[in-house]
Amino acid sequence: MELAIITVALVLLACSVIWHVTEEYRGRVIATxxxxxxxxxxxxxxxxxxxxxxxxxxxxxxxxLVQPGREPVRMDGDVVIERDRINWVQIVGS
Length: 94
Description:
By secondary structure, this protein is α+β, with helices and mostly antiparallel strands. Helix content is 30%, strand content 39%.
């Protein structure tokens, strides 16, 4: 009986790990390496190429800061944004 319970627990653990890895991979592939607009919670936006997505972070390259009533400002290097600061992300290029 104990062997059956351990076997079921291991199968459930393996299934949950496979599901988690699949969801992580699918989430990282969507919009990656495409030009996006990231709207921030403080009425600013950043445009750039979505380079990488991590659990709590988004990385953009070739980014520009866009603020209402001002010209876009080019940003040097990679821009790392915490997901808590993001309202929405829109794909703007193919």
